[in-house]
Design a protein that fits this description.
The longest helix has 16 residues. Helices cover 45% and strands 13% of the residues. The protein contains 13 helices and ten strands.
Length: 332
């Protein structure tokens, strides 16, 4: 394969699904279905894959699954021009070890979660990011506090974006004010042209991708929502790149947000967000069930009915026919 300029591809803007974890009824890794999910994302046209992130379940680390799960995705992506992003979290020792594992497996960048450093000041956070960046290029991650993130002010983002190891930022606070904090920080960093901005705001995907702030634009998405209906997500991003000002995006924006509210279980404070993703994939036959590593984590009361509603209301968002035509091959 000719040289793959993954940085240029990342900066051009990609659809990057956050990769779920396929488990058996015994809550053990289902390698066959885990590989099938990766094949689905690749064949759907995803330009990147993020593994070991929130959608993969942070608890894979406690279950000894971090390296095996990242390794399966890397094997399936080998020989394909796809940007591989590894979730990296924890305090310094853990984060450096995870970054080293990702490098060895062939990943291009680390999506750096700072949720474990809740009491660290800005100086400590910047030094932490710099240390990880000595091993692997860094993608910043503003994870919403409701699922384990912490508040990060504009001053942090200005200093973070100024680090030469930072190649992109996933903006996912699910909050307009905090999203602006990231954009302001990047704009003031002096490196705005060198950093690819990605929406992680699953509640605001289309509007993030079709608007600008002081000349800054989010070029792609790294999203749990794009772990389902991925073929349509890839098509939508390409269409937005072609005509971001088209009036139809206003309506599509709200339908996708309504669908995300059901899948991510907004009614119960996102408690069923991972199980909701699993439920769509289960209905398509890619997963056998909605099992999570935590036995107490699953669909919330009424969530399945809400998913019924949005599937019936917005069939154009789904890629069921594409999955049905290829599922057996992916599950081989």
């Amino acid at each position: 394969m000719a040289h793959f300029d993954w940085r240029a591809r990342l900066h051009a803007g990609l659809a990057i699904p956050a990769h779920p974890l396929a488990l058996s009824a015994a809550r053990r890794l289902d390698e066959r279905r885990q590989r099938a999910l990766t094949r689905y994302y690749l064949d759907a046209g995803a330009g990147g894959i993020a593994v070991g992130v929130h959608t993969t379940q942070f608890a894979i680390r406690e279950h000894g699954l971090y390296e095996p799960v990242l390794g399966l995705a890397a094997e399936e992506a080998r020989g394909r021009e796809v940007v591989m992003v590894a979730g990296v979290c924890g305090r310094r020792g853990q984060a450096l070890a995870e970054a080293a594992t990702a490098v060895r497996l062939g990943y291009h960048a680390a999506l750096l979660s700072l949720g474990a450093l809740r009491d660290a000041d800005v100086d400590e956070l910047i030094e932490h990011a710099r240390a990880v960046g000595e091993i692997l290029p860094v993608v910043g991650f503003y994870l919403q506090p409701a699922v384990g993130g912490r508040v990060l002010e504009a001053e942090f983002w200005r200093r973070f974006a100024a680090l030469e190891c930072v190649v992109a930022i996933k903006i996912a606070p699910f909050d307009r004010y905090r999203t602006l904090d990231v954009l302001r920080g990047v704009a003031d960093s002096g490196r705005a042209a060198e950093i690819a901005l990605y929406t992680g705001n699953d509640d605001h995907i289309v509007l993030d991708l079709t608007t600008t702030f002081t000349g800054l634009r989010m070029v792609g998405g790294l999203l749990g929502q794009w772990a389902v209906w991925t073929r349509r997500a890839v098509e939508m991003l390409a269409a937005i790149h072609g005509d971001p000002g088209a009036p139809r995006w206003r309506e599509i924006a709200w339908t996708l947000t309504d669908a995300n509210a059901a899948i991510f279980d907004v009614a119960h404070g996102f408690r069923g967000c991972i199980a909701g993703i699993h439920e769509i994939l289960r209905r398509q036959g890619l997963l056998e069930g909605v099992w999570c590593l935590d036995p107490g984590e699953g669909l919330s009361p009424g969530q399945a009915a809400e998913i019924d509603r949005i599937c019936a209301a917005y069939p154009g968002l789904a890629d069921d026919e594409f999955v049905a035509a290829n599922r057996d091959r992916w599950l081989r």
